[in-house]
Specification:
The structure holds two protein chains of two kinds. Chain A is an alpha+beta fold. Chain A is built from one helix and six strands, in the order E-E-H-E-E-E-E. Chain A has one helix at about 25-40, and strands at about 1-5, 10-15, 40-50, 55-60, 70-75, 80. A five-stranded mixed sheet of chain A has the order 2-1-5-3-4. In chain A, a hairpin with a 5-residue loop joins strand 3 (about 40-50) and strand 4 (about 55-60). Chain A is globular and about 45 Å long. Chain A starts with a strand and ends with a strand. In chain A, about 35% of the residues are buried. Chain B is an alpha+beta fold. Chain B has helices at about 1-40, 50-65, 70-80, 95-100, 145-170, 180-205, and strands at about 80-85, 105-110, 115-120, 125-130, 170. In chain B, helix 2 (about 50-65) crosses helix 5 (about 145-170). The longest helix of chain B has about 40 residues, at about 1-40. The termini of chain B are far apart. The radius of gyration of chain B is 31 Å and the shape is elongated. Classes of the chains: A alpha+beta, B alpha+beta. The interface of A and B includes residues 53, 54, 75, 76 and 81 of A. Strand 6 of chain A pairs antiparallel with strand 4 (about 125-130) of chain B, so a sheet runs across the interface.
Amino acid sequence: MKFLRMRPGYGEQLIAEGDVEVAEDEERLVEEFRSQLEQGMWAAVPVKTEAGRREAEMVRAFEDIPRTTDRVIFFPRAAGGAA
Amino acid sequence: MTPALAATAIVVLALLWEVLHPWAARKLEILRANRARRAEGDGLPGYDPGRERRAEQRARELLKSCVNEEEWAMYRDLGFIRVWGGESGAAGDDVLARDLRGVPYAYLVYPHKPIVAYLPQTGQLLNEYCVEFPDESRPFGSPRLPDSDDVLAKWMALNGDERRLIAEANLHLPGRQIDPRQVQRDIWRLGRWERERLERRASAGQDGPRGVTQ
């Protein structure tokens, strides 16, 4: 599982990677997930429906991430703006 | 005679030195500064003019890998994505969904512009939702995501939790920031784009494997 973070002036950055079936990796991913949320990020998981349609799920806890997903994308939380 | 000429020449040289010395010193200083700037890599320190372009390229690849093929083609060809409303399963209590009583609605998602809600059946514009995704860590001096990342963030948030995104946005009537004539034109372009796409697909089906595919 890869954690990607959108960055201004950069595009996405790989911030963590690991196998959720390996306890040590999972612990590291959990820590990173919490850290990103504490920094004000939102997390989304790209998913594919049974009909083959691509969608996204917003996740608020590590436990909500489907175990089979290969990437979680973090992006700054939405704020009402002028644009 | 000769000593008089020599004395005059010395005086002239001394006067020229007095006049030209400050000018020469200034020129020398500019020359040294330019050389030092070139040695440091020219322009602003640490500024890379290709960075934004590379960031946008990376963002486009990520967007393409996440959205549906039709949505990617829409963004590539038209510069925006249409996202249907009320499909995230979280819009049940949303004011917009409730007021429309089951009438299908959709959003036009532009990069770094408000999200525009409208009725696809009539083309009526409903609202503008002004929303940003500012990264206050400002790793490269600006909090703005690349254009395609901004579109992807809106797409994921609308898909995954429409109500949450709409709740965070500033709600305005249509026309506050985007000219309604431009949105109407985009809706018309989208309709034409979809028709042409369907026709191409239909003719590709008739032509079999020789047909054009997208």
